[in-house]
Design goal:
Blueprint: E1 2-5, H1 11-23, E2 27-32, E3 37-42, H2 50-54, E4 59-63, E5 83-86, E6 89-91, E7 97-101, H3 108-120, E8 125-127, H4 145-158, E9 162-165, E10 180-183, H5 191-198, E11 204-207, H6 214-226, E12 232-236, H7 254-261, E13 266-268, H8 270-274, H9 277-290, E14 294-298, H10 316-329
Parallel strand pairs: 7-8, 7-14, 8-9, 9-10, 10-11, 11-12, 12-13, 13-14
Antiparallel strand pairs: 1-3, 1-4, 2-3, 5-6
Helix pairs in contact: 3-4, 5-6, 9-10
The protein binds phosphoenolpyruvate and manganese (II) ion (MN).
Length: about 325
């Protein structure tokens, strides 16, 4: 971190600043220029409040040279993390997985039928919401506990590992047989939940918030990792922009940016990004081509009657086509 101090600072204020910075455990390198003075802070500055320094009267400017996240930072972990979610299913390090399934688990027949179809098409994990974060309190809220039981039945029937969303930490005991816990976009900054998940050893798929920056996503991953759980998979699922033609705007550039800054695997969810089934294939192809480590795609056996997100759900036949196209692309996709 670099602190630019104004010309001829008040002596006492300057001493207060340097003593305070030293008390935070960083070493100071002071260089005096013509028009101002530059303090180079060396050491771990992740807990230094940059805005607090910036607010001081004698400070002209502050710049962070090092990112405020350590565990998720590729600088300290140059190799890609490879996260094993089940026997033979790993994310990261050049692997490519498709997670597929309904937005919500609705019935045993529905989820098993979909699981069998997506497995046949090459999906390596089954998704399905049991606890649903809906915009309206009057919309279907998910089957809850019995939804998870049905997912487990589908896992037993097909052998596919399962992923489902947790909404609050008290639900954790229900997730014993769930292979990957999903933290949804709306909970990306539920810091208490993230801290608690940091104490588990389950892989966590962390979705980017609707209006969150890439750095905020990485800071949320850091919350989980700081607790000791290194198994974090990031998911870009579209962000809010001024555009209304799609549900959200898929930020494909998040993939190379995340790949540069972090060693964690990155998955793209084209379904929630666009909101319409006819756009899922082009977005899935773009995501695959740009080098993500996997996709998460919503599939329903009867989208028209789906209890949630029918408009963006692919039929099993359409999913066959998308999966085939993406698997054909994958050997050519970027490696970082
Ligand atoms: C989901 O994947 O079911 C979901 C609710 O997605 P998001 O949190 O990205 O809106
Ligand atoms: Mn959905």
């Amino acid at each position: 971190m670099v602190v630019v101090v104004k010309k001829n600072p008040d002596k006492e204020q300057f001493e207060n600043l340097t003593n305070w910075l030293k008390s935070l455990g960083v070493t100071l390198h002071i260089s005096e220029g013509e028009s101002n003075m530059v303090l180079g802070l060396v050491g771990d500055t992740s807990s230094v409040d940059i805005d607090l320094i910036r607010s001081l009267a004698i400070v002209e400017d502050v710049k962070r040279i090092q990112e405020p996240y350590k565990n998720a930072n590729r600088k300290f972990h140059p190799e890609d993390s490879v996260i094993k979610v089940a026997d033979g299913v790993e994310f990261g390090g050049g692997t490519f997985n498709i997670i597929a399934g309904p937005c919500s688990v609705e019935s045993e027949k529905q989820v098993i039928e979909i699981a069998e179809r997506v497995k046949k098409a090459g999906a390596t994990m089954l998704r399905g919401g049991a606890f649903k974060p809906r915009t309206s309190p009057y919309s279907f809220q998910g089957l809850g506990c019995s939804g998870i039981e049905l997912l487990i039945k589908a896992k037993e029937a097909t052998g596919l590992p399962i992923i489902t969303e947790i909404m609050e930490f008290s639900q954790l005991p229900l997730f014993d047989e769930v292979d990957v816990i999903q933290v949804g976009a709306r909970n990306m900054q539920n810091f208490e939940l993230l801290k608690e998940l940091g104490h588990t050893r389950k892989p966590i798929l962390l979705k980017r918030g609707l209006a969150n920056t890439i750095q905020e996503l990485l800071m949320s991953a850091e919350y989980i990792m700081a607790g000791g759980n290194e198994k974090v998979i990031l998911c870009e699922r579209g962000i809010r922009t001024f555009e209304t033609a799609t549900r959200n705007t898929l930020d494909v550039s998040a993939v190379p940016v995340l790949k540069k800054h972090t060693h964690l695997p990155v998955v793209i969810d084209p379904s929630h990004a666009c909101g319409y089934s006819n756009y899922v294939k082009p977005l899935a192809l773009a995501a695959t081509a740009i080098g993500c480590d996997g996709l998460m795609i919503e599939v329903h056996n009867d989208p028209q009657h789906a209890l949630c997100d029918g408009a963006q759900s692919l039929t099993p036949d359409a999913f066959d086509d998308v999966a085939k196209a993406c698997f054909a692309l994958r050997p050519y996709s970027c490696r970082y």
